[in-house]
Amino acid sequence: MADLLHFSRNTKVYLKQGANIWEIPVLDGFSFSQATNSSEITLNEMSGAAGASRRARQMFNDSFAPAEWSFSTYARPHATGAVEEALWANFVSDSSYTSATNTWSNGIGQAGAVMTVDFEESNVVTLGTYDLFFVMGAVNDAEANFTGGTDVSIYKVAGCVGNSVGLDFDIDGITTLNWSGMGAKITEEAAFNATTAITTGIASTSNFIRNRLTTLAMTAADPTIFPGNNSDGVYNLVLTGGSLSFENNITFLTPETLGTVNQPLGHVTGTRNIGGSFTCYLNNGAAGSSADLFEDIIEATTKVTNSFGLTFGIGGSSAPKMVVTVPTAHLEVPSHSIEDVVSLEVNFHGLPSTIEEVDEATVVYTGS
Which residue ranges make up each domain of the chain? Predict the structure, then answer.
């Protein structure tokens, strides 16, 4: 019998937290891996008897490094949430799910077809953890009760935590979220039963969000320094692209006991970092143009923080859509990109209203 090869397109990914399982439709390019941390001991002697000199070395495994994983998903709202809501819930808090009411303990708010992701409960030492299952060959199994063998391989990444998520405004693309994180250990499993997996919204063909419809509402906190359109602080910019990033800066802790190969114990959170960039053509004439924005920022020598409220309307005004609000964004000086049509790129950093607050950003999905 010939060896059976696995193709990435036949893989399904599942997230399990407690007794609840979600199917996570991922795009091509997913990955998961784990390495070992090792020590090398070398000998380096001067000349001994008859000119001999020992030059050998030894290697010792100290510990397993945390597992690393990454994949991309489409942003897909539906009438009661979003396909990827389990990832968001555990990214912004230590959250748990109640299947009877379809609610999360923290991080996710639901009101009809509107789902809100906020960071109000993200000031925690540890975030929600879960197991990821990468089932290779799963597409060939219609029952979703998988048994590892000649046609299916099941890999489990235990104790996973979300470290970063990025969103790129590809003007001709579909809104995509790029997830990455860490876990405690990768194992190969003999079986995995996903027959009860939550798959709401996966079969829909009408819940994809088009980037080209994206808008930006931008208002300065201090219109005397940044007057904008009519001394109201409003700038009228039409985007040509951009990106948003959310970072938890996770650190995994591993003991360093001698004489054993140590295993990662768990994670702690670091500084929350939210930011991104956007691009637009350089234009002037009307007040509040991109040229005015550049001029106002470069001349604001008395402002230590260039504070603007940014609202990205991803997908336009009609559902399905996604709105990301950064109410206190610090804008850097825009940079010019000299191409056929000259454009500006503006980097920004999402800041809390005060150092104690956790209101850097909110993400709102609207399904139908």
Answer: 8-34+61-366
